[in-house]
Amino acid sequence: MQEEAQVVIIGAGAMGAGLFYYLAHEGWTDTLLIEKGELSSGSTWHAAGLIPHFIGSLNMAKNHKVAADLYPALEAETGMNGGWHETGAIRLALDQDQVDWFKYVHGIMELVDNESYLLEPKQILEHWPFMDVSDVKMGFHTPNDGWADPSMSSAAMVAGGRQLGAKVHKHTLVTETNQLPDGRWEVITDKGRVVCEHLVNAAGCYAPQVGAMAGIDVPIVSVIHQYLITEPMKEITDLGSFQPPIVRDPRASAYYRREIDSLLVGPYERENAQVYGIEGIDWDKHFYLTPPDLDQLMPWLIEAGNRVPAFQEAGIKTVISGPITHTPDSGFLMGPATGHNNYWHCSGASIGVTQGPGAGKYLAQWMVHGQTEINVAEMDPRRFGDHCGPKGRYAKDKAIDEFHEMYATRLPGEQRFAGRPQKADTIYDRLDAKGAQWQEIFGWERPQYFGEAEAHSFRRSNAFDAVAAEVKGTREIAGIADLSAFAKFEVTGSDAGSFLERMAANKMPVKPGGMRLTHFLTTLGGIEAEMTVTKLADDRYYLNSGITSEFHDRDWLVHHIAADEEVTVTDVTEDKGILAVAGPKSRDILSSLTDVDLTNESFRWLTGQEIVVADVPVTALRVSYVGELGWELHCPMEQLPQLYDAIVAVGEPMGMVHYGAYAMNCMRIEKAYKAMGSELTTEITPVEADLGRFVNYDLDFQGKAAAQERLAQGDDIEMILVYCSVDTANNDPRGNEPVYYDGELVGLTTSGTFGHSVGTSLAFAYVDPKCKAPGTDLEIKMMDEMRPAKILADAAYDPANEKPRA
Ligand SMILES: Cc1cc2nc3c(=O)[nH]c(=O)nc-3n(C[C@H](O)[C@H](O)[C@H](O)COP(=O)(O)OP(=O)(O)OC[C@H]3O[C@@H](n4cnc5c(N)ncnc54)[C@H](O)[C@@H]3O)c2cc1C
User: Fold this and answer.
1) How many CB atoms lie within 10 A of CB 442?
2) Beta-strand (E) ranges in 327-367?
3) Any bridge partners for residue 316, and if so which?
4) How much is the pTM?
């Protein structure tokens, strides 16, 4: 074995093979793919190989499309057949929620340029004449779907990488991985040692064991899935050479496809799913299967028999049973390992034959260029906190729940309760008693709103009125919110200021007490992070960002400290609680609990002071994400109850309300505040995001040259962010809806809400710059209906920004 390589990939399943192929195509050919068995001898070989385009996430839809485009093309490039069978697919909707979801996904398909049709039930019979569709309300047809023989497609991808010079070592077991003092990785195998710059864990079900070699918790638990193949069935042979579309049926929680003259049926049981290998899997397993257990599937097979009555009489020829990797949200892991330089994950796919090529393509871009062409936040491994270890309750309960839900329809705002609560802060019980409806974010419990449990829907739900009251109360009197679920860092040291100035796109505060919202860019100008920076002393800064970015932002800061800089980044997220008190009466409420003068003269907007409120030491920041006069009070977590009780005791008699994440989102959009993750993402530069005064081109900062280059393009850029009012019926924009101008598709929404204070729906959208002018009439396709929208010049609420300065 060679002694050095630029990249070592551990594992040659669909995920490792996809990366191997695309890294070579990005120009990195000094790559070694190490596999302990044969190619695809892990989970990949026994997969049913179905490749769905249908998915409710825009970026995952882009990911899935990569496989369906690549597999048919591999033969021409490599001479090896990619095993592709284009049959199309139909998913069944059985109730109104599922119909609404189909209409939403129909828009996503349009955005990613995937052909799709909404079918009447009788049209399904044209494809499957012997299927019962009596309970079906709608079919979603994606004619370009299909299935791939997973061994053939993986082998062809590996061939594509090899042709360009990358190398494969089969029958080679990785036994140890160590980071060397120079940052490179040493990989010990049973055939020798290799040192590489980048190490990729693509070890499938073994990924937690391989991660453990480097002390890395990989949040993956494997769950057993089975499919069966019938004896030949007359109904199938009667189809002649016709290959009917694969069908996905939520009632049986199963897929059906033709397999030669037989029917292949794969249910994801919705109860009692069995996990596999949590304590470790023997290294010498190759092409292994788990023992079939049809009893486990019986309720779902009975439903399958109701859907395809002929199946009830068919004999069973084969049962395939094997483990599938599941992360706590069933998305795969693609990107850097938390806290480790140049260690990458490429694993955890629950449909890896579908997702391997896309994961490979975008991870290769990330490794080679430092940035991807799509937003990969929902694939970034750092979206999982340290509560997600593979041997813990959370990872297991979530994996099982995600497996049960494979064919369920997730409704907007819907919460799953498996594995929770993980991080309930010190006022959880108090907020629960107030009627908090909880959402989980990065392990933290956070109120969505206060009131009766939500009957979730793609239409306006019963939460609508509760949120309206929270918004009104906050805007007219005052509101209190628990914002403890935000990331909090202290950046200290003699070079802290110059370090932040070098990285941040905005001018950093000069005097202690100063505060700035700033963005951090990649070298290509992409928006990598957004943080509020408060200068507490010349050598002490306090930084806040969204909680889902905690590990991402911490790594981003730490990895950019130069060797000669004296800077320390301390993550104080868990140590501090945050209460926001906002609204016209917030000053009165807080003034009665502190000796500090809170008037404009002594405590200006966008400044911070370390003060005492209700005998609790707090870092008080005069800032409000809801656009009102207000303060955020950051205090020791154990003293949060004391602070909360004191504020509630004074505030509630004055009419102060509690508000949750729904109301906060509504109010931030009414103020036209952009959010990291929806409007602001890594593949977007400050120019498209129209960040204006938040970027100071007079300064030097990472990513400036690239952003400036984009700025010079003027209206020749691909898209620009606009803000609009939308005329809606009983549903509001939520993001990823197609936007039209004059009948032409010109962009997509990124987020939206009903603006309770302004009486209209509002949305942000990226559109072709030719239609960016305020006053322009657009149309937004929501639930398959065109709704009129108009671009606004300013925030819908308080455009002069007088309220926060009051
Ligand atoms: C019954 C069944 C049906 C399925 N149907 C579908 C489907 O229709 N569509 C779909 O998209 N997906 C399907 N899947 C899921 C799919 O099989 C997996 O998501 C996918 O194979 C995961 O690929 P991977 O590369 O992550 O893992 P694997 O294929 O398991 O690859 C990991 C590789 O790493 C190697 N390795 C591990 N540790 C080491 C080490 N220390 N040293 C060297 N090598 C190592 C292993 O030998 C293995 O080959 C199905 C799965 C099952 C079980």
Assistant:
1) 24
2) 333-336, 343-347
3) 230
4) 0.96
